[in-house]
Each structure stands twice: as structure tokens, then as C-alpha cells.
Structure prediction request, 598 residues.
Amino acid sequence: MRKSAASLAFDTLNVVLMLVMVVVTLYPFVYVLMSSLSNSMLLLSHTGLLLKPLEFTTEAYALVFRNPNIATGFRNTLFLTTVGTIVNLTLTSLGAYVLSRRGVPWTRPVMLMIVFTMFFSGGLIPSYLLVYNWLHLGNTLAALIIPGAISTWNLIILRTSFASIPDSLIESARIDGAQDFTILFRIVIPLSMPVIAVMILFYSVGHWNAWFQAMIYLRDRELFPVQLILREILIQNSTQFMSSDAAAGDAQAVGESIKYATIVVATLPILVVYPFLQKYFVKGVMIGSIKG
Amino acid sequence: MMKVWSSAIRKDFRLHKYLYIMIFPVALHYLLFQYVPMYGAIIAFKDYQVAKGLFDSPWVGWKHFVDFFDSYYFWRLLTNTFMLNLYQLLFVFPAPILFALLLNELVGKRFKRVVQTVTYLPHFISLIVICGMITQFVSRDGVVTDLLVWLGMERTALLGHPENFRTIYIVSDIWQTIGWSSIIYLAAISGVNPELYEAARMDGAGRAKQMFHVTLPGIAPIIVILLILKIGSMLDIGFEKIILLYNPNTYATADVINTFVYRRGLTSTLEFSYATAVGLFQATVNFLMLVFANWFSRKVSETSLW
Prediction:
């Protein structure tokens, strides 16, 4: 069909609008990258947009990597992300499997009890007291893994996906003598890999980016995840401890580019895995959203 | 009666032994980390002292609630929470719908993918980094401030003034969420019956008309569902972001119920009972609003959560 002038105008306007969206979303990251590679003195006196580094230098990165807090932070975050995600996946799969079985009389009330927690909760303080005073998990990394072991939203998505596996497949496995654990790990999970991949992405990004629980439960700096260290640098403005070996007058200037360099360092791991997982998560979110 | 029950349970247990074993850690998790805190919220009616514990701390009835309602903070917190939510409802909520509609009209498949990939990205960046970027950009010599100065504004640190807080919060919220939130609407759009477009074209509807008269009504149910959920959390707001962005200078517009609970309960003063009462007030109002929104929607649009 031949396009009318109105239709053509619509398309052009739309493309322009979308290009603006892309630039507006990406430019802040470009700005951060360019700033992190700039001479900090020049950066301090620069105003307006930035399209290339001002006197290319990697001095800020050297300072970031020399900082011992960043190193232990990354170690803790890596631990939390791996162990936390494994715990998340195990519990969420178990729950999703049981709740997706048909013909079990009690799954409906259990499901209702679980969904209710999405709409009502005891609140921040009782949860804190439970973890800190009653379970004595304060100042442990377990406090950042165990209380959040299941996300109800993810549980519902996974349950929907598990429920779409044909009953006949599960029944024939049962006739061959397989019991539920075998069915879950040998049949249901392998058949749900796209959604499981999405769960891995959601949970691990969650752990990687988490900071609030760490802030309220942890006291020892040796346990701090990298986001908490970033908070000190980016939000509370304490870059002194990183730039102490620079000349006193330059400390503030160096602080500026250190901030941008830490943003890059903390964001890079996600940017690296992101393109590989993208094809999975769109699909996964849709499975969850249409039927969920 | 009891006997009938216990024998039925025993029979069911034999039949589904492994399912019971599998659900045990899950059920334990929900009981311990969701239902125990709900019970623990009774400290809102007590003067909780750590040394005395949950059971032996003295009852005080509605004292903490009354204190909160009478305090100077009550209206300020309620207004701030409500205003941020209202702005979210007016600007952040419709943005991804409009975005999804326009994205759906894009002709080039590849370009569409590029736009999607780019706009999803902020969703995966940590809040600390996002807020770090915001504070940098709107600081006295930040890049956003530079642009606004170029447009004629006087140079100042934008986050230092209470009148700017809501705008900064909402604009950055749109930037962060527009792409990711649009996924759900795109999914719904792909489910709209193509014959409807054919019929609309026959009737002479142009592209924009098709968008507003076919696509939009087609995704109305999912919009209503998300709207109900949004209204059901009207006293909730992304408070982690506020904690990272606000400071005593901007409390006048930035302090919300959640941040107040956090400050009163977990920093310096440790007023556990008072903070719990404030939190419980919020949770209850939210829940009632959700129930009301759901009831109302079922009445007028036959779409509802339950």
C-alpha cells in the first residue's frame, strides 16, 4: 500500500522523537565516562556538555583501584551476588513448583497467604528487630541474603511458567518412577531455562545493586558491599580518604574525577553482561506479565 | 471432626510427601519474614524496650498514633507523600504507555530494538549510581545546572532548595523507568487482534486514530490493573531514592512517611514503637486504598485484581 503524506509525517516525527529518547538516555553515561577520563583540574572549571575527555588521563582510575575499600567491597558484593542468587533460585523454584501443581488441595490458600504479603507488611521496624535483635543476624552477610530469599513477584512469574509445562510430560515421568525433586530438576527447570535466566538476571542485579539492608545491618567496614562504599564517595562526598596522597589543594579537584571513575567501575560489570541477557529478559517479563 | 481432619491431612501427606518437604522452607520463609513482623507490629501499641522484649514491654494503646496525628510532621509528611505520588500518577505513570504506543508504530525493526535496548538500561543501574549522577548533574556546576543557566536561570545548587525536589525526583524517575515499564504494555499491544486494525483502516482511520481508538482500548485492562496497584501504594514511594537525594534543607518537600519511619526508628533516636505506629498507619491506609480501588474498578470497568 502506498503511504499517505500524513503517515509519512507521523513516521518521521516518531523516529525523531525516539532518537531524542536514545540520546537523552545515553548522554549522561557518555558524560560520566568522559569526565572520568579527564584531567580533574580542567574538569572543575569546565561548564556545559562534554563530548571528549579534557586531556585524557587514567589517573582517577589508578586512585580508585588503589583504594582497599573498593577491593573488599567488590569481594563482598561478588560473594553476596553468587550465594544470594543461588539461595534465591533454589527457594523460588521449590515454591513455584509446588504451587504450580494441580490437584493439591492446599496450594490455593498457601498462594493467597503469599500474595497477601505483597499488599500488607509489618513494616521496616518490626522486620529490623526480627533480624537484628531476635535472630541475631546483625553484622553478618546472612542478614542480606536470608530475609530477602524469595521475591514474591518472581515466584509468581516462575509459577506461571512452570504451570505452562504440559501435565502429560510430568505424569509420564512419574509413571517411570520419578518423584518430585527429580521432576523439578530434570524436567521442569531445564524446560524453563529462558525464565530461569531472567530470574538469575533479576536476582543477581538486585544483589549487585543492594545497599539499604547493608546500611542498616552491617557495622564492620570489612563486610561492606561495594554500593555502600560508593555511597560514601558519591552521596556523602568523602573522597578525601582516596585522594590523600595528592597535593592538598588538588584534593577537591581529584575528588571530582574519582567520583566519575567509581561510577564507571561499579556500572561496568552490569553493562558487560547486559547485552547477553537482554534477549532472555524481554521474553521472561512478557510471560510474567500477560498471564500473571 | 478433628479426627476426620487429621486423617485427611495424613492421607494427603502420604500422597504428596515431597511437595510438603519442598514447600516447608518456602512457608517457613514467609511465616518468619512476613507474618512474624506483622505480629511484631503490635509494638506500635506498646512502649517497646529492647531489654524487656516484645511480651513484657508495657501496653500504651493508641498513644503513638495520637502523638503522630497531633505532631507538626503529620500533615507535612502526608502532603509530601501524596504530592510525589500524585505527580507520579500524572507524569511517570502515563509516560511508558505513550512510549509503548509510539514504539509500536516504529517501522524499522532494528531501530526499534536499539531504542528498547538503550531505554531499558537505566533500570539495571544501581540507585546509588543513579543518585550519584543526579547529585553531580544538578550541583552548582553540574551539567544540568549549566544547561539551565544557559537558558537563563540563576546559578545555584538545585538540590539545595525544597521547591526543586519534586521536579528532580519526578524527571529522573521518568528517565529511569520509562523504557522498562513499557515492556508490559508492548506485550499487551502484541496481543491486540490485527483484524481490528484492518477494520479501522477500512473505516478510514489514520495512524494516530488507530493508535488511540484500537491500540489504546486494547491495552486498557492492563492499564487499569497497574493503575489499581499504583493507587494501592499511594502512601508508598521509592524511599531509598529519597534517602539518597534529600537533606535537612529539603525536608520541607522531600521528607515522606517512609523516610520519617527510617529516621525515627533506625537512626539516632531509636523510637521503635513510635516509628512502627507511623509505618502501620501507612500500611493500613495503603491496603484500604487498594481494596477500594479494586472495588471501584470492578464496578465501573469490570477489570479487577481479584
User: Anything to note?
Assistant: Chain A has 14 helices and no strands. The longest helix of chain A spans residues 251-291. Chain A touches chain B through 84 residues (CB under 8 Å). Residues 68-240 of chain A form a domain with the MetI-like fold fold (CATH 1.10.3720.10).
